Amino acid sequence: MIKIFSVISLIISILSFSISFFSFKRYSPKIVQILPVDTLKTRFVIPEKAIYYYDDDEKRSYLGRGFMVRFNFLNSTSRDIAFFHSCFYVNNELKELYTNRTVAWNSSNPHFIWNKGDSSSDLIFPDNVNGIFKANSLTPFYAYIPLPENESVPKKITFSIKIAVRRFPYITIKQQYTEICYEYDLTNFSIELLMVKNKYTHNNIERYKTKQMLRKQEELKAKRRPKKRKS
Questions:
Q1: What's the burial of 62, exposed, middle or buried (CB within 10 Å: 0-12/13-18/19+)?
Q2: Which of 1, 18, 41, 61 is the right S-S partner for 70, CB 3.0 to 4.6 Å?
Q3: 10 three-state secondary structure
Q4: Alpha-carbon torsion 96, 98, 100, 101, what sign?
Protein backbone atom coordinates (compact mmCIF):
# COMPACT_ATOMS: atom_id res chain seq x y z
CA MET A 1 0.00 0.00 0.00
CA ILE A 2 2.82 2.35 0.91
CA LYS A 3 4.52 1.58 -2.39
CA ILE A 4 1.34 2.45 -4.31
CA PHE A 5 1.10 5.82 -2.53
CA SER A 6 4.79 6.44 -3.26
CA VAL A 7 4.26 5.73 -6.95
CA ILE A 8 1.16 7.96 -7.07
CA SER A 9 3.07 10.77 -5.30
CA LEU A 10 5.92 10.40 -7.77
CA ILE A 11 3.54 10.53 -10.74
CA ILE A 12 1.81 13.64 -9.34
CA SER A 13 5.19 15.30 -8.77
CA ILE A 14 6.29 14.53 -12.33
CA LEU A 15 3.00 15.85 -13.74
CA SER A 16 3.25 19.02 -11.64
CA PHE A 17 6.82 19.59 -12.77
CA SER A 18 5.88 18.96 -16.42
CA ILE A 19 2.96 21.40 -16.27
CA SER A 20 5.14 24.05 -14.60
CA PHE A 21 7.95 23.52 -17.10
CA PHE A 22 5.72 23.76 -20.18
CA SER A 23 3.92 26.79 -18.73
CA PHE A 24 7.28 28.44 -18.18
CA LYS A 25 8.42 27.64 -21.73
CA ARG A 26 5.13 28.83 -23.18
CA TYR A 27 5.08 32.18 -21.42
CA SER A 28 8.81 32.84 -21.23
CA PRO A 29 9.93 35.85 -23.30
CA LYS A 30 11.34 35.15 -26.74
CA ILE A 31 12.04 37.01 -29.97
CA VAL A 32 11.84 35.34 -33.37
CA GLN A 33 13.43 36.76 -36.50
CA ILE A 34 10.90 35.49 -39.05
CA LEU A 35 12.70 36.24 -42.32
CA PRO A 36 14.76 33.19 -43.42
CA VAL A 37 18.45 33.87 -42.86
CA ASP A 38 19.43 32.98 -46.43
CA THR A 39 16.83 35.34 -47.92
CA LEU A 40 17.19 38.36 -45.64
CA LYS A 41 16.65 41.45 -47.73
CA THR A 42 20.08 43.00 -48.19
CA ARG A 43 20.45 46.25 -50.06
CA PHE A 44 23.49 48.01 -51.40
CA VAL A 45 22.83 51.68 -50.87
CA ILE A 46 23.65 54.50 -53.24
CA PRO A 47 22.80 58.11 -52.36
CA GLU A 48 19.96 58.43 -54.89
CA LYS A 49 18.14 55.40 -53.47
CA ALA A 50 17.89 56.14 -49.74
CA ILE A 51 16.38 59.54 -48.99
CA TYR A 52 15.35 61.14 -45.76
CA TYR A 53 13.00 64.08 -45.39
CA TYR A 54 13.04 66.31 -42.35
CA ASP A 55 11.67 69.55 -40.91
CA ASP A 56 8.10 68.45 -41.69
CA ASP A 57 9.16 67.04 -45.08
CA GLU A 58 10.25 70.47 -46.32
CA LYS A 59 13.91 69.46 -46.73
CA ARG A 60 15.60 66.30 -47.89
CA SER A 61 19.00 64.65 -47.88
CA TYR A 62 20.51 61.28 -48.81
CA LEU A 63 22.18 58.41 -47.03
CA GLY A 64 25.70 57.80 -48.27
CA ARG A 65 27.06 54.67 -49.88
CA GLY A 66 26.56 51.75 -47.56
CA PHE A 67 25.04 48.37 -46.75
CA MET A 68 21.56 47.76 -45.37
CA VAL A 69 19.60 44.71 -44.27
CA ARG A 70 16.01 44.32 -43.13
CA PHE A 71 14.80 42.12 -40.29
CA ASN A 72 11.32 41.30 -38.97
CA PHE A 73 11.41 40.65 -35.23
CA LEU A 74 8.31 38.97 -33.80
CA ASN A 75 7.47 39.22 -30.11
CA SER A 76 4.53 36.84 -29.68
CA THR A 77 4.53 37.08 -25.88
CA SER A 78 2.43 39.34 -23.66
CA ARG A 79 5.45 41.26 -22.37
CA ASP A 80 7.63 43.95 -23.92
CA ILE A 81 11.20 42.78 -24.51
CA ALA A 82 14.14 45.17 -24.46
CA PHE A 83 16.95 45.14 -27.01
CA PHE A 84 20.31 46.86 -26.67
CA HIS A 85 23.79 47.18 -28.17
CA SER A 86 22.51 46.81 -31.74
CA CYS A 87 25.57 47.35 -33.92
CA PHE A 88 27.79 46.14 -36.74
CA TYR A 89 31.25 44.65 -36.35
CA VAL A 90 33.69 45.62 -39.10
CA ASN A 91 37.10 43.93 -38.91
CA ASN A 92 36.29 43.09 -35.27
CA GLU A 93 35.70 46.79 -34.57
CA LEU A 94 32.31 47.87 -33.22
CA LYS A 95 30.41 50.33 -35.44
CA GLU A 96 27.27 51.89 -34.01
CA LEU A 97 24.04 51.28 -35.87
CA TYR A 98 22.45 54.07 -37.90
CA THR A 99 19.30 55.31 -36.14
CA ASN A 100 16.84 58.19 -36.25
CA ARG A 101 18.93 59.84 -33.55
CA THR A 102 21.96 59.78 -35.86
CA VAL A 103 20.47 62.64 -37.87
CA ALA A 104 18.55 64.27 -35.01
CA TRP A 105 21.22 66.96 -34.57
CA ASN A 106 20.61 68.12 -38.13
CA SER A 107 16.90 67.50 -38.57
CA SER A 108 13.58 67.13 -36.81
CA ASN A 109 11.08 64.33 -37.49
CA PRO A 110 13.24 62.51 -40.07
CA HIS A 111 11.32 60.32 -42.52
CA PHE A 112 13.38 57.75 -44.43
CA ILE A 113 12.26 56.25 -47.73
CA TRP A 114 13.68 53.82 -50.27
CA ASN A 115 13.38 55.19 -53.78
CA LYS A 116 12.30 52.43 -56.19
CA GLY A 117 11.98 54.75 -59.15
CA ASP A 118 8.27 54.48 -59.91
CA SER A 119 7.39 54.02 -56.24
CA SER A 120 8.89 54.19 -52.77
CA SER A 121 8.72 52.42 -49.41
CA ASP A 122 9.41 53.47 -45.84
CA LEU A 123 12.71 52.62 -44.19
CA ILE A 124 12.00 51.99 -40.51
CA PHE A 125 15.18 52.68 -38.58
CA PRO A 126 15.19 52.24 -34.79
CA ASP A 127 15.03 55.43 -32.73
CA ASN A 128 18.16 54.40 -30.87
CA VAL A 129 20.60 51.49 -30.54
CA ASN A 130 18.59 50.46 -27.46
CA GLY A 131 14.84 50.02 -27.48
CA ILE A 132 11.83 47.77 -26.97
CA PHE A 133 10.09 45.11 -29.02
CA LYS A 134 6.45 45.67 -28.09
CA ALA A 135 4.36 42.75 -26.81
CA ASN A 136 2.32 40.79 -29.38
CA SER A 137 3.81 42.71 -32.27
CA LEU A 138 5.98 42.45 -35.37
CA THR A 139 8.76 45.05 -35.61
CA PRO A 140 10.37 45.80 -39.00
CA PHE A 141 13.99 46.67 -38.31
CA TYR A 142 16.36 48.18 -40.87
CA ALA A 143 20.07 48.03 -40.06
CA TYR A 144 22.27 50.36 -42.12
CA ILE A 145 26.00 51.01 -42.02
CA PRO A 146 27.72 53.72 -44.10
CA LEU A 147 30.68 52.59 -46.21
CA PRO A 148 32.37 55.86 -47.29
CA GLU A 149 33.74 55.91 -50.83
CA ASN A 150 37.15 57.08 -49.63
CA GLU A 151 37.53 53.94 -47.50
CA SER A 152 38.11 50.35 -48.58
CA VAL A 153 35.16 47.96 -48.30
CA PRO A 154 35.60 45.24 -45.65
CA LYS A 155 35.40 41.62 -46.77
CA LYS A 156 32.70 40.87 -44.24
CA ILE A 157 30.56 42.58 -41.61
CA THR A 158 28.53 41.18 -38.73
CA PHE A 159 25.24 42.52 -37.42
CA SER A 160 24.68 41.98 -33.70
CA ILE A 161 21.76 42.73 -31.39
CA LYS A 162 21.28 41.73 -27.75
CA ILE A 163 17.82 41.03 -26.33
CA ALA A 164 16.72 40.77 -22.70
CA VAL A 165 15.97 37.04 -22.77
CA ARG A 166 17.85 34.95 -20.21
CA ARG A 167 19.64 31.71 -21.06
CA PHE A 168 19.95 28.60 -18.92
CA PRO A 169 21.42 28.21 -16.32
CA TYR A 170 20.88 31.97 -15.69
CA ILE A 171 24.04 32.35 -13.58
CA THR A 172 26.60 34.55 -15.33
CA ILE A 173 26.01 38.07 -16.66
CA LYS A 174 26.20 36.84 -20.26
CA GLN A 175 23.39 34.38 -19.51
CA GLN A 176 21.08 37.26 -18.56
CA TYR A 177 20.62 38.14 -22.25
CA THR A 178 20.69 36.54 -25.69
CA GLU A 179 22.84 37.80 -28.54
CA ILE A 180 21.69 37.40 -32.16
CA CYS A 181 24.33 37.68 -34.89
CA TYR A 182 24.27 37.57 -38.70
CA GLU A 183 27.39 37.65 -40.85
CA TYR A 184 27.52 39.06 -44.39
CA ASP A 185 30.11 38.54 -47.09
CA LEU A 186 30.97 41.81 -48.87
CA THR A 187 33.59 40.39 -51.22
CA ASN A 188 31.48 41.35 -54.25
CA PHE A 189 30.20 44.62 -52.79
CA SER A 190 31.75 46.84 -55.49
CA ILE A 191 30.26 44.71 -58.29
CA GLU A 192 26.83 44.56 -56.64
CA LEU A 193 26.89 48.32 -56.03
CA LEU A 194 27.76 48.94 -59.67
CA MET A 195 24.82 46.75 -60.74
CA VAL A 196 22.51 48.79 -58.50
CA LYS A 197 23.83 52.03 -59.98
CA ASN A 198 23.49 50.76 -63.55
CA LYS A 199 19.97 49.50 -62.91
CA TYR A 200 19.00 52.79 -61.31
CA THR A 201 20.53 54.77 -64.20
CA HIS A 202 18.83 52.48 -66.71
CA ASN A 203 15.48 53.02 -64.98
CA ASN A 204 15.99 56.78 -65.07
CA ILE A 205 16.79 56.65 -68.78
CA GLU A 206 13.76 54.48 -69.51
CA ARG A 207 11.48 56.80 -67.55
CA TYR A 208 12.94 59.80 -69.38
CA LYS A 209 12.36 58.12 -72.75
CA THR A 210 8.79 57.28 -71.78
CA LYS A 211 8.09 60.86 -70.75
CA GLN A 212 9.61 62.17 -73.96
CA MET A 213 7.53 59.76 -76.03
CA LEU A 214 4.32 60.74 -74.22
CA ARG A 215 5.13 64.42 -74.68
CA LYS A 216 5.66 63.95 -78.42
CA GLN A 217 2.39 62.02 -78.67
CA GLU A 218 0.58 64.88 -76.95
CA GLU A 219 2.19 67.37 -79.33
CA LEU A 220 1.11 65.32 -82.36
CA LYS A 221 -2.44 65.07 -81.01
CA ALA A 222 -2.50 68.81 -80.49
CA LYS A 223 -1.37 69.41 -84.08
CA ARG A 224 -4.05 67.08 -85.45
CA ARG A 225 -6.87 68.73 -83.57
CA PRO A 226 -8.92 70.95 -85.88
CA LYS A 227 -8.39 74.60 -85.19
CA LYS A 228 -11.41 76.61 -84.15
CA ARG A 229 -12.53 79.04 -86.79
CA LYS A 230 -12.81 82.64 -85.82
CA SER A 231 -16.36 83.86 -86.08
A1: middle
A2: 41
A3: helix
A4: positive
